[in-house]
């Protein structure tokens, strides 16, 4: 059994982390903390956590010698404080994306994580998508040298979205508001498949007052390996289909990974160097994994083996996802000028 503490007992902790942790036999939640204690007490009940382990401060969680790692689901501007406590008390921590509220906090987190042998992980669950492995191992080798892509994740504004009620999202201290909140997931998928981004030219706009800041992004990207493409993101539009697709163009074919709602995620590809040599389309259907379960198993293994090299999403990887959003916002302020992605 690996004992853990859950801090920040809000929507995602209650609806997703707790049920997922309870599915993994050897994970045992034993302590909790939340700013509003009454919510932590309700959470403790659901999690079968003893009432004497519902703590009054974040620090007490880290002081508890029975806690083997901390799972933090705080408004992201508090991630840095949690990582500092993790280093001070020599206790592994995993914490929710985006890595931080801005690049200066994110840089500090990367430096702190480099200074220790402790496993420190950003819970960027999209890095565990099975689609990434299928694309990289089964499809990309067949479509030849990759030259470009169009990545589109757009949808209508959802006024019943439960996350709209959270005050830290209504008045975001984190750069980009929803653009970084959800955008880092999309960029995790994009970069896991095609590698890191070198520069971006983007235009952003605020369509909804409720978003607190700009909420849609249209952009052009240049990858480190020379591949070029477009990245369009936003869920603040008027009535339209929710559409999520990632088309990759190679010199010997192309692939379309489509995970729009309403059907199973599908990967459809064709090969050939031209219209004349075009193959029939081939479809790969697959069951997607539970990415939250995968990330917890990954972190459990790195904690048990005391091996930080096992962590799939160390802070430096998650830094890049946020740095792309930061560069896009910067670019938009300069009317779409090309902006290099900052390094940690
Ligand atoms: N991976 C994913 O797909 C995914 C999905 C959703 C959310 N998330 C991440 O999960 C985290 C939590 O999001 P959520 O939607 O669950 O938000 P939430 O419901 O607002 O939960 C945040 C919790 O943090 C607590 N908190 C607020 N200010 C605090 C402070 N100053 N110090 C300590 N605790 C404080 C809140 O306590 P009170 O009860 O006092 O307000 C609340 O319980 C965020 O980092 C978010 O990005 C990830």
UniProtKB/TrEMBL annotation:
Note one Pfam family from the annotation: GFO_IDH_MocA
A cellular-component GO term for this protein: cytoplasm
Q: Which residues form the signal peptide?
A: none
Gene Ontology BP term (one): NADPH regeneration
- An example Gene Ontology molecular-function term: nucleotide binding
Question: Do you know which InterPro entries this protein is assigned to?
Answer: Gfo/Idh/MocA-like_OxRdtase_C (IPR004104), Gfo/Idh/MocA-like_OxRdtase_N (IPR000683), NAD(P)-bd_dom_sf (IPR036291)
Residues annotated as domain Gfo/Idh/MocA-like oxidoreductase C-terminal: 142-340
Domain of life (superkingdom): Eukaryota
| Every Gfo/Idh/MocA-like oxidoreductase N-terminal domain range | 3-122
Tell me the PANTHER family matching this sequence. Answer: NAD(P)-BINDING ROSSMANN-FOLD SUPERFAMILY PROTEIN (PTHR42840:SF5), NAD(P)-BINDING ROSSMANN-FOLD SUPERFAMILY PROTEIN-RELATED (PTHR42840)
Its protein name is NAD(P)-binding protein
Q: Which organism is it from?
A: Candida verbasci
Q: Which taxonomic lineage does the organism of this UniProt entry have?
A: Eukaryota, Fungi, Dikarya, Ascomycota, Saccharomycotina
């Amino acid at each position: 059994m690996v004992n853990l503490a859950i801090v920040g007992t809000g929507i995602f902790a209650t609806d997703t982390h707790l049920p997922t942790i309870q599915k993994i036999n050897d994970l045992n939640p034993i302590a909790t903390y939340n700013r509003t204690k009454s919510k932590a007490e309700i959470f403790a009940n659901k999690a079968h956590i003893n009432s004497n382990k519902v703590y009054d401060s974040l620090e007490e969680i880290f002081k508890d010698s029975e806690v083997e790692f901390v799972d933090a689901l705080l408004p992201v501007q508090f991630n840095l404080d949690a990582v500092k406590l993790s280093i001070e008390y020599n206790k592994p921590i995993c914490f929710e994306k985006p890595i931080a509220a801005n690049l200066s906090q994110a840089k500090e987190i990367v430096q702190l994580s480099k200074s220790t042998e402790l496993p420190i992980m950003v819970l960027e669950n999209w890095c565990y998508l099975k689609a990434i492995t299928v694309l990289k191992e089964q499809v990309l080798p067949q479509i030849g040298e990759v030259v470009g892509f169009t990545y589109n994740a757009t949808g209508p504004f959802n006024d019943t979205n439960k996350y709209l009620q959270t005050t830290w999202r209504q008045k975001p201290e984190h750069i980009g508001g929803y653009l970084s909140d959800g955008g880092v997931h999309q960029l995790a998928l994009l970069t896991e498949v095609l590698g890191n981004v070198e520069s971006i030219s983007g235009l952003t706009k605020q369509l909804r007052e409720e978003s607190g800041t700009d909420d849609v992004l249209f952009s052009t990207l240049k990858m480190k390996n020379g591949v070029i493409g477009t990245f369009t993101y936003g869920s603040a539009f008027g009535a339209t289909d929710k559409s999520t697709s990632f088309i990759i163009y190679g010199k010997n074919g192309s692939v379309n990974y489509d995970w729009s709602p309403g059907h199973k995620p599908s990967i459809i590809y064709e090969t050939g160097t031209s219209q004349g040599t075009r193959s029939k389309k081939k479809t790969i259907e697959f069951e997607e994994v539970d990415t939250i379960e995968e990330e917890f198993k990954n972190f459990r293994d790195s904690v048990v083996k005391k091996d930080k090299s096992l962590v799939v999403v160390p802070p430096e990887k998650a830094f890049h996802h946020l740095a792309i959003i930061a560069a896009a916002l910067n670019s938009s302020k300069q009317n779409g000028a090309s902006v290099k992605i900052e390094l940690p």
